Amino acid sequence: MQKLPLRLQIAYSCGMMGWSIMINLISVILVYLYLPPATSGLPSLITQVAVFGIFNVIALVTGGGRLVDAVYDPLLAQFSDTSKNPKGRRIPLMKLAILPSFIFCFLVFYPLKNSESTLNIYWLIFTLTFFYISSTTFIIPYNALLPELAHDSESKVKLATWQSVGYVFGIAIASNVFNITEMLEKATGLGKLHSLQLTVAMFAALGAVLMYITVSGINEKIYCKAVASSIPLKKALGQTLRNRNFLLFIVADFSFFLSVTLITAGLMYFVTVLLGLDESISNKLMITMVLVSFLFYPVTNWASRKIGKKKVVILSLILLGITFSGVFLLGKFPFPPKVQIFTLIIFAAIPVASLNILPNAILAEIIEKDSRETNENKEAIYFAVRYFFVKIAQTIGIALFSMFLLYGKDVGNDFGIRLNGVLGCSLCILAALVFTRFKEPEKKI
Question: Residue 86 in contact with residue 126, Cβ under 8 Å?
Fold first, then answer.
């Protein structure tokens, strides 16, 4: 099996970049658009009345969509793992997912009414659910390619690094949405809502093009070391969920993604409500995070070789938790608002560098060890189970964030926003404690 050349490693990272653009448009803008703070200049699109006194509508809608998607994950993974398609087990599925991912990504931000309406709730349920399903159809096979394209531990870390580069570039691109919106608003006079919608459509189209670069560039038959699995779904899931090391990985991963979702969903609120800054600064924050993270990528690779991936991950989770605790005091420190938010972002970027690279490399090693022991290739099943819990974490994270907003989301009444920092910190520390029990796989000789 041929080694994946550098140009195709970059092509592989493009798929993650495109997916990251789309998923971060949803993560960063969705709640802000449908539950806008009073100072945003955006109209209210759905009711903000709490259901059962604690849940708002957007928490229920996003939660329901994610749960449908999560059930779909293992079915898709089994189909991919057992596929005997002559063109490969992964790429054909990924190719099918690109167009619907693009369509439903921008339709999420095109409500049927530009004012508060029940129709907008039904539309959001429909578009968001099918976006999640479409994007999952791309990302599960995409991630399953990693252990198949990278044939040893060092190659896995390198390819995971390129994957991480794609992910953070996607975040950086998506973070420019408000800057482009502002430019369009001034140039066209469309108004803020329509300018935002047009910007989202353009960014989603860029994401689709990047995803296509991956599926058109990589030939599974030349570069993938893989054989179709014949194991039934129930047995495959059973073997996966009995893997103690994998379960510890999942619990830590779940806690980490729950904390990150809380902070990601809250970023625009931290900027505009807690610090009184303009929302257009968000792209500068993300670019800063990307640049600082890149500086620490070589450090991550060096440290993982010297002290092991496990120790690097634990230290990174602790540092990220300490950083997240600063959210509670944003706007109260005796420093200018810009100094506060950029300091927070820079300190967060350091552990994010390793937490973007190492988990996928660790999971690829878990999968490789399982394949040797069971003689079955269940790459997609492992990634599907992982992403099932990631999506549950993201669902709970958005739900908790939305619920916290009931306790204050506007200037002078912001306690609900600050609570996210406390919970984010606690979850990162919990993830670190759980991961101390993880047994790092022995290097393959």
Answer: no
